[in-house]
């Protein structure tokens, strides 16, 4: 897997009342670990990036008290420790710090500097509850033009089980390619889900649905998926789940729970005329409820609404 050459790692350095905390959160450490692994697998360059997220009034007070330079220096010291760790693994790496809304600054960094993927962490609030919805993670999934990997802290560095949500469109093919490559590298159990259910909820990528895709038989769906994964080597044979009656978000949640899925790979698209505002009805219902990490990709023609 040599798709990614420039990787941006979003690192949250804050904790409680501290803008730059002494300790890096488990969520950010997970993102750092995944980024170093991915960079090594792809011979890619890493940038560890932190946007110090403060309001305009707080930022003005920092400027007036001449503490800005001290805060930025402390933040860079934290990030440079990550840079040193990456370089010890033979990875080219650098760091950057700025002030501003973290999700917005990350997207601007991607748009301006052409990063291939963003990796960032999220905090876990309970067995089936995350803070993806309304958080930096959800905004990145909606509006960032590059693939986004939102990581959940886990004890084992190996990803044991992966679920790919496939829409049988180019963006679904890309998700399948990434999920299969990840499963091959990690020796993971691979599951693939495709929904043919349209009555209560939209499909994974309803904006792209047409009569031709709706008419595909389960056998045609299976053949499409099998043709994609035939060139990969897996420890166990992938399992294909074709959903015909259960709402797709419920079906995906059931698979995540029943098979202890640790990474969900899926495509996301805007479903309104305003690019990036909504990522798909099923995805909007599903993502706030999942307990696993998410790797989401956009269609090639996706344009982020964040440009400046």
UniProtKB/TrEMBL annotation:
Localization: Cytoplasm
Residue ranges annotated for the UspA domain, each copy included: 4-151, 160-298
Superkingdom of this protein's organism: Bacteria
Cytoplasm keyword on record: yes
Keywords: Cytoplasm
Species in which this protein is naturally found: Gimesia maris
GO (cellular component) term, any one: cytoplasm
Protein name per its UniProtKB record: UspA domain-containing protein
Family stated for the protein in its record: Belongs to the universal stress protein A family.
Record PANTHER family: UNIVERSAL STRESS PROTEIN E
Record keyword Cytoplasm present: yes
Function of the molecule: Required for resistance to DNA-damaging agents.
Major place of residence: cytoplasm
């Amino acid at each position: 897997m040599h798709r990614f050459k420039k990787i941006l790692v979003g690192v949250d350095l804050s904790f409680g009342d501290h803008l730059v905390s002494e300790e890096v959160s488990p969520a950010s450490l997970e993102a750092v670990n995944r980024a170093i692994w991915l960079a090594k697998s792809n011979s890619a360059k890493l940038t560890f990036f932190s946007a110090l997220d403060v309001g305009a009034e707080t930022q003005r007070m920092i400027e007036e008290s001449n503490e800005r330079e001290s805060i930025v220096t402390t933040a860079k010291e934290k990030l440079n420790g990550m840079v040193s760790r990456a370089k010890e693994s033979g990875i080219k790496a650098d760091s950057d710090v700025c002030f501003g809304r973290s999700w917005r600054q990350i997207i601007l960094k991607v748009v301006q500097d052409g990063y291939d993927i963003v990796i960032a962490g999220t905090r876990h609030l309970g067995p089936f509850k995350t803070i993806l919805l309304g958080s930096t993670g959800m905004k990145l999934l909606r509006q960032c033009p590059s693939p986004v990997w939102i990581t959940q802290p886990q004890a084992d560095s190996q990803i044991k089980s992966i679920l790919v949500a496939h829409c049988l469109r180019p963006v679904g093919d890309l998700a399948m390619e990434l999920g299969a490559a990840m499963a091959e590298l990690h020796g993971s159990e691979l599951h693939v889900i495709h929904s043919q259910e349209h009555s209560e909820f939209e499909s994974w990528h309803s904006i792209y649905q047409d009569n031709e895709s709706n008419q595909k038989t389960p056998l045609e769906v299976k053949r499409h998926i099998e043709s994609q994964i035939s060139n990969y080597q897996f420890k166990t044979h992938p399992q294909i789940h074709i959903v015909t009656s259960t709402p797709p978000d419920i079906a995906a949640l059931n698979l995540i729970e029943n098979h202890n899925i640790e990474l969900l790979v899926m495509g996301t698209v805007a479903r309104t005329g305003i690019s990036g505002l909504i990522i798909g009805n099923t995805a909007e219902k599903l993502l706030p409820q999942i307990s696993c990490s998410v790797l989401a990709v956009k269609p090639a023609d996706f344009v982020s609404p964040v440009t400046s």
